[in-house]
Design brief:
Length: about 240
């Protein structure tokens, strides 16, 4: 397992950044895991690592949970992630990822230049955000950017943002982990890695929370949007490069 120590270190960095950006590490963790494992195992590892990550955030940020938002966004997300995970082998993933990256980039860029603009957290916007993030999480392995954009648009306080996002994501990741396991995506070689990834997720979340105490609310929202923008650009570059190979 020595060859995976670099993977664990990068996973720790992704978890710290994921905590600071408010919506989890999957948007960074998936490209990292892809350097070491095949795509299906990456999906399985990401789902289980995120269960650990979300449990850590729920514990460390437990006073910030908004149950109303978590339920009205989380239940549609859980339903949608199962659908996305079940059809992941039947849709053109590269094309969908390109479209998603462009849409996320444009939306985040708009919100970055309108930091004081807030979206009312109506039932409709919560359900749509939950369905979108859940479906993409099941289909492509990450829906955190969509959920991050939705929660950022609501203007939630940073501790509420992180705790509520983690609670929603816990249901999503548990659901897709079950589907991925049934489809054989979680292989035996991963089981010995689980204790280390559990420790990595907790340590990364704790470090992120410690840093977050010194970050004002406006800067937190800016960080969220900048991470989303940079990641969408990176993903778009990767996919367009692969198309031309």
């Amino acid at each position: 397992m020595e060859k995976y120590w670099l993977f664990y270190l990068l996973a720790l960095v992704a978890e710290v950044i994921g905590t600071l950006s408010g919506f989890g590490s999957s948007i960074l963790f998936i490209p990292i895991a892809s350097l070491f494992f095949d795509f299906k195992l990456v999906l399985g590892i990401t789902a289980i690592f995120h269960i650990f990550s979300n449990l850590s955030k729920i514990y460390l940020f437990k006073n910030g949970i908004n149950k109303r938002i978590a339920l009205k966004m989380g239940i549609p997300a859980v339903i949608a992630v199962i659908v996305g995970a079940l059809i992941t082998d039947f849709l053109p993933q590269k094309e969908l990822e390109i479209i998603m990256s462009i849409g996320i980039f444009l939306t985040a860029l708009y919100l970055l230049f309108h930091l004081n603009k807030q979206l009312p957290d109506t039932d409709r916007s919560l359900v749509v955000g939950g369905l979108s993030s859940g479906f993409l999480a099941g289909l492509l392995g990450t829906g955190g950017a969509i959920r991050g954009l939705t929660l950022a648009a609501f203007g939630l306080e940073k501790n509420v943002f992180i705790a509520t996002s983690a609670l929603i994501d816990l249901g999503v990741d548990t659901s897709r982990a079950i589907v991925y396991s049934a489809n054989g995506y979680v292989q035996k070689q991963f089981f010995v890695m689980m204790p280390i990834l559990l420790a990595v997720s907790f340590l990364g979340t704790w470090v992120g929370k410690t840093i977050l105490k010194h970050i004002p609310q406006t800067l937190f929202k800016t960080i969220v949007l900048l991470v989303i923008i940079m990641t969408s650009i990176m993903q778009l570059f990767i996919h367009l490069t692969n198309i031309h190979k």
